[in-house]
């Protein structure tokens, strides 16, 4: 049985880690290099680093910061933000990233997924999908959640998997930062429709929320930010709890 993964997320704005609620109201959460080191030493299975303003500001992810973080961690490290070409991915991998996360650029030109998979392999390519529930179902949003689309979430996720992406990072914008639990119904539906690992994001507030997203949401990994950044949940304690709940986890 594959073990479930716990993944802290470092949302970066102007070189600092930030966190908000429903993608707005951002507040400072610390130095990303120090946080990366701390998580690597305290039980995190992987890290995700998202330069959240790169796409909106039409600039590339900060390679130097990626390099500094990568030098401090010895666990898999995914980087996203402003990635739109093979050259972007090559630069990030050369600076220490193990995987890259693409979002808006993939929606605008889905062929990018296929191109990156062909060049670097599925294991390197994570497609992040930010979605919000509307009257007509879940819809994809772009540019850090700021730009709504009429693209149906589950259909897009299926195309992402068909094009060879290695994982899907699904963030429910409705749940983000609320600490009320993950979007487990949507996650469970997603798990039935794609055959690649799913990372759940948005809504972590208690240890039981992680248990539920693994058991009810069928997620393969759970990503969180503020509960880790502000020491509301310690990863070592969380993992012990999950083990006691019968979930396969690396201690």
Give a brief rundown of this model:
The chain is an alpha/beta fold and 251 residues long. The protein has helices at residues 32-41, 63-70, 86-94, 104-108, 111-120, 153-162, 184-193, 207-215, 226-229, 235-244; strands at 5-13, 16-21, 24-30, 47-51, 77-80, 99-102, 125-134, 137-142, 147-152, 167-172, 198-201, 221-224.
Q: Explain this structure to me?
A:
The model is unreliable at 20-26 and 54-59 (pLDDT under 50). Helix 1 (32-41) runs parallel beside helix 2. The two termini are 15 Å apart. Helix 7 (184-193) links the parallel strand 10 (167-172) and strand 11. The protein has an eight-stranded parallel beta barrel with strand order 1-4-5-6-7-10-11-12, surrounded by six helices. Helix content is 34%, strand content 28%. It is globular. With 251 residues, it is α/β, with parallel strands linked by helices. It has one domain: TIM Barrel, CATH 3.20.20.70.
Q: Quick one: how many beta strands?
A: 12
Q: What's the level 1 CATH class?
A: Alpha Beta
Strand line-up across the major sheet: 1-4-5-6-7-10-11-12
Integer-rounded radius of gyration: 16 Å
CATH topology: TIM Barrel
**Mean pLDDT metric:** 89
Shape: globular
Question: What is the share of helical residues?
Answer: 25-40%
Supply the CATH superfamily name: Aldolase class I
What share of the residues does DSSP label as strand, in percent?
25-35%
Please identify, by name, the CATH architecture: Alpha-Beta Barrel
